[in-house]
């Protein structure tokens, strides 16, 4: 047996297996179509979604199951509440964009203006949605190598997430995003605020795209 894992976290987990732990293990990540998931001009992408180009846009996705606790939705809600109460944060300049297959009626109350995109079936349009965001937030508590993180970075949108699973394989702290302390909503809010006040946001955007081209493009994998 030669075990192939998509992330370093998964490869490390194999070592705890009494059956497979002694086998040779390699990490070969999943790849992404970088010619599909690519950056679009941010102001134009915002106009496509009918969002004020001057807004600082936070994007996140929701899973349909209420029992899907490993997605960490309560931490996202708490982090946004914390952020909204901080000095230097203008609530009117921030907009939250949510995609996924939950109905609007199932959504919790958010402290910022919120736009619901529903289910997005076309990758090209999804890439424009990522490009419209200034940051993608994933509060996932357990994930291997989540596609949404890779897609967002490929579209030059920084990711703010917990340090868990395979996410640190993609997100490099304060380089192409922010890795918050696990299950710490306060630190998740810190990550959003860090990017909100960042003077050189363009450098972070470029680093996000470059990190995928360098480590996860089809040619590299």
Blueprint (SSEs and pairs):
Layout: E1 2-5, H1 8-14, E2 24-27, H2 42-48, E3 56-62, H3 73-84, E4 94-100, E5 113-118, H4 123-132, E6 135-138, H5 147-154, E7 159-162, H6 167-170, E8 177-180, H7 185-196, H8 201-215
Parallel strand pairs: 1-2, 3-4, 3-6, 4-5, 6-7, 7-8
Which stretches of 5+ consecutive residues score pLDDT under 50? none
- Number of helices in the DSSP assignment: 8
Shape category: globular
Helical residues, percent: 25-40%
H-E string = EHEHEHEEHEHEHEHH
Which structural class is indicated by helix and strand composition? Answer: alpha/beta
Largest sheet: 6 strands, parallel
Please tell me about this protein's structure.
The protein has 221 residues and is α/β, with parallel strands linked by helices. The protein is built from eight helices and eight strands, in the order E-H-E-H-E-H-E-E-H-E-H-E-H-E-H-H. The protein has a six-stranded parallel beta sheet, with helices on both faces. Strands 1-2 form a two-stranded parallel sheet. Helix 6 (167-170) links the parallel strand 7 (159-162) and strand 8 (177-180). Helix 5 crosses helix 8 (201-215). The two termini are 21 Å apart. 34% of the residues are buried.
């Amino acid at each position: 047996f030669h075990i192939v894992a998509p992330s370093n976290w998964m490869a490390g987990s194999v070592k705890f297996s009494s059956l497979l732990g002694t086998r040779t293990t390699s990490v070969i990540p999943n790849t992404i179509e970088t010619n599909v998931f690519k950056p679009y001009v941010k102001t134009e992408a915002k106009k496509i979604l009918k969002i004020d180009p001057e807004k600082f846009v936070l994007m996140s996705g929701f899973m349909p199951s209420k029992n899907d606790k490993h997605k960490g939705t309560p931490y996202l809600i708490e982090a946004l509440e914390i952020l909204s109460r901080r000095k230097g944060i203008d609530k009117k300049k921030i907009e939250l964009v949510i995609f996924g297959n939950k109905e609007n009626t199932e959504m919790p109350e958010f402290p910022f203006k919120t736009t619901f995109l529903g289910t997005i079936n076309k990758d090209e349009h999804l890439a424009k949605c990522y490009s419209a965001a200034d940051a993608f937030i994933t509060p996932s508590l357990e994930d291997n190598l989540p596609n949404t993180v890779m897609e967002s970075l490929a579209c030059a949108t920084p990711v703010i997430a917990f340090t868990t699973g395979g996410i640190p394989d993609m997100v490099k702290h304060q380089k192409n995003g922010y890795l918050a302390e696990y299950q710490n909503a306060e630190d998740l809010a810190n990550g959003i605020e860090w990017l909100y006040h960042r003077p050189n946001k363009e450098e972070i955007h470029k680093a996000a795209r470059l990190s995928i081209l360098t480590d996860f493009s089809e040619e590299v994998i």
